[in-house]
Amino acid sequence: MRYALKVQYIGKNYAGSQIQLKDGKLANIPTIQEELERAIWTLIGGKSANEYNRQIKTIFSGRTDRGVNSKGQTVHFDLPETIVASKFEYSLNEILPDDISVSDLRMVDKSFHAQKSAKWRTYRFEFINRRCKNAFDRDLMRIKYNIDIERINKSLNYLVGEHDFSAFKSSGTLNPSKICLIEFATCNKVGDRVFIDIKGNRFLYNMVRTIVGTLLEIEGHNLEPEHMKRVLDSLDRRKAGQCVSPFGLTLLDVEY
Q: Residue ranges per domain, the chain?
């Protein structure tokens, strides 16, 4: 039986979403995937999580890096027998660490694949726009100079559509295809909090964080919004801004 669920997590205490191996064995590094698989194994196998050795394998809709959060990561996994979804979901949440939770557990068709079946992914980057710090800012990046939301939206508009995003990829990108389709990219400000939402069919490694870094370069140096188009057309990573901190980046949703 194949099941799918959504996973919410705060990525601060984990080395990313994907499980990490060393010499073919589990590395002693905390990841979201390992915590989830251990919890499922405990419920299905009726054994201690310490005995887990990937008897249960989960497939994520995509990887998120160290420090990146999720509100809508989609995961699928196969079980040998039928379960009561509502009871299983409740039990998983009781077992999982406080910074990981699950929701919307349901049975899906065998053809469903959390990664390959995904059509759209939406990310949000949040930061503070204020001169002085606040104790409740926590790990969010703080930009001291005033942000012009209208200018940022003009810059983001150049990214909408299908483009080669080579200028915004990090060197760790394994997939040779650099073409992505962006359905929308918008910026909003509520009080002193700035939210940048980007929806696309796929994203390159560190693409959203590099886009944000480029936006801040445009604002910080009072460049014209058209600078974003020049960077995009250059296909040259050296023309883009810095890759900003992962804190503040959240995978909001995955659509199928």
A: 2-108, 120-255
65 is catalytic: yes
Encoded tokens for 48: 């201690």
Structure tokens that stand for 213 in this block: 């870094």
Q: Where are the beta strands (DSSP E) in the chain?
A: 2-9, 21-22, 25-26, 58-60, 69-78, 100-108, 120-129, 142-143, 161-164, 179-190, 193-200, 249-255
| Predicted structure pTM score | 0.93
Residue 156: alpha-carbon gap to chain centroid: 19
DSSP string, 182-223: EEEEEEEEETTEEEEEEEES---TTHHHHHHHHHHHHHHTT-
Question: Of 23, 65, 98, 253, which one is the catalytic site residue?
Answer: 65
The per-residue pLDDT for range 147-156, each reduced to its tens digit, is 999 999 999 9
Fold of 120-255: Alpha-Beta Plaits (3.30.70)
Give the model confidence (pLDDT) of 52-99 as tens digits: 667 789 999 999 999 999 999 999 999 988 999 999 999 999 999 999
Q: Are strands 249-255 and 69-78 parallel, antiparallel or unpaired?
A: parallel
Task: Give the pLDDT of residue 251.
Answer: 98
Q: How far apart (Å, rounded) are the C-alpha atoms in residues 186 and 124?
A: 10
